[in-house]
Amino acid sequence: MNTLIISLAALLINIPLGIWRRKYKKFSFMWFFLIHASIPLIIPLRIWLDTPKIFIPLFIGFAVLGQLIGSNVIQRF
User: Fold this and answer.
1) How far apart are CA 74 and CA 45, in angstroms?
2) With contact defined as beta carbons under 8 Å apart, do 62 and 13 qualify?
3) What Cα–Cα distance (Å) separates residue 26 from each residue in 7, 35, 64?
4) Predicted pLDDT at 73
5) Model pTM?
6) In angstroms, what CA-CA distances link 16 with 26, 32, 50, 52, 55?
7) How far apart are CA 11 and CA 43, in angstroms?
8) pLDDT at residue 74 greater than cutoff 90
9) What residues contact residue 40 under an 8 Å CB cut-off, 6+ apart?
10) With the CA atoms of 72, 21, 54 and 43 taken in that order, what torsion angle do they form, in degrees rounded to the nearest 10?
């Protein structure tokens, strides 16, 4: 259950960040900042919920998926 909570959090946090990231030039400071902005939120959540380190790639995958969904939302509308 904790894995699901963190996975959804990583996804949902990164969707608005992906929308915001789309407005900046690729590889600019803000572009990098917005890609990594969710890390200080997800790591403490993972530690607080005592989730094993083996699930970190899953959380990264959901964060990337959230960024992709967010960046494509702007293109669609």
Assistant:
1) 29
2) no
3) 26, 11, 16
4) 78
5) 0.89
6) 17, 15, 26, 27, 23
7) 14
8) no
9) none
10) -140
Polymer length of the chain = 77
Q: With bands split at pLDDT 50, 70 and 90, how would you rate the model's confidence at 1?
A: very high
Domain of 35? 2-76
* pLDDT (tens digit per residue) in 4-57: 999 999 999 999 999 999 999 999 999 999 999 999 999 999 999 999 999 999
Q: What would the two tokens of residue 35 be?
A: 């890609």
Rounded-to-integer distance, Cα 52 and Cα 71, Å: 30
Q: 50: Cβ–Cβ under 8 A, 6 or more apart, which residues?
A: 2
All residues at 6 or more sequence positions from 51 whose CB lies less than 8 Å from its CB, including other chains: 2, 3, 6
